[in-house]
Amino acid sequence: MSVLGNIYFASPGFLRKIFGGIYKAYKDFGADMRRALSERNFQKALIDSSEGKIEDLNIFEQKIYSQHGEDGISRAIFEKIGTVGKFCVEFGVGNGSECNTRYFIEKEGWDYLHMDAGDTVVPFTDIKREFITAENINNLFAKYTVPREFDLLSIDIDYNDYWIWKAIEDYRPRVVIIEYNASIPFGESRAVKYNPEASWDGTNYFGASLSAYIKLAEEKGYKLIGCDSTGVNAFFVTRELADKHFALKDAKQLYKPPRYGAKEGGEYIGHPPNNKNSDQWINI
Questions:
Q1: Torsion of CA 59, 65, 68, 72, to 10 degrees
Q2: Distances (CA, A) of 155 to 62, 74, 230, 232
Q3: Radius of gyration of the chain (CA)
């Protein structure tokens, strides 16, 4: 704890309001400085890569509204490829405060569709309450008049992500951000068994491996261009955009192991293992 924090908690009640204000201002100032430094680093990286193809997405990582560095990566991608209609779709957004598309909605004025199955008390965005399945995803897109071609799709529902993306037909987002299961080593291609009513139980039995997503992406005409450094989200763009704007690396180089959750032997292993469902994986 900082010196100001110690003073705050050691002070009598009548002084806490004073020190509380000072402490808040101190923290806010620190946060503002970090954001300014982050933006300066982002702009420098953008200038450095303005000519030629982007070689490393991770140098752009920047957290504004996203969980990790996804905001900066997404910004860099669209700075390079441009937009077609400034429309994004994201589901699994919670209350919308921390998600992969809020930056574009609030800072760039994009139109959007946000969906989540939860009962959000204080939403930060206009969230449609929908329980999403492979069977209804295309009907939901039609219901909310999603354009056939749009800029960005972000999927993070913590369980059936692979099967939802696989089920999307006749819609072509230019960029897809999707959560992958970094606990599964690169080269192993598997996904959870599809169950439309299932939800994440907090273990490492969720979603699909990066290798499984790469195979699905190839079928749909996309290429992997990077993963965030925490090992949470993978970034795919259409094949033609990938070839034109990104210096494509071997996918094994782009895979990032989990940098979250439990540790074994000093190394992160992601979410705790689920031995009950270990035989339920579907090989892709």
A1: -10
A2: 19, 14, 17, 12
A3: 20
Compute the distance between CA of residue 180 and CA of residue 157 in angstroms, rounded to an integer: 11
pLDDT in tens, 185-206: 999 999 999 999 999 999 999 9
Tell me if residue 76 falls in helix, strand or coil: helix
* Euclidean distance between CA atoms 188 and 92, whole angstroms: 25
Q: Which pLDDT tens digit goes with each residue over 34-67?
A: 555 577 877 777 777 777 899 999 999 999 999 9
What are the contacts of 40-43 at 24+ separation with CB within 8 A?
Answer: 42/72, 42/75, 42/76
Least Cα distance to 67 among 259, 262, 274 occurs for 259
Integer Cα distance of 155 and 144 in angstroms: 17
* Dist. CA 174–CA 83, nearest whole Å: 9
Residues 6+ apart with CB under 8 A from 214: 224, 251
Q: pTM, whole model, 2 decimals?
A: 0.86
Side chain identity at 256, as an amino acid letter?
A: K
- DSSP bridge pairs for 15: none
Half-sphere exposure of 7 (CA within 13 A, CB side): 12
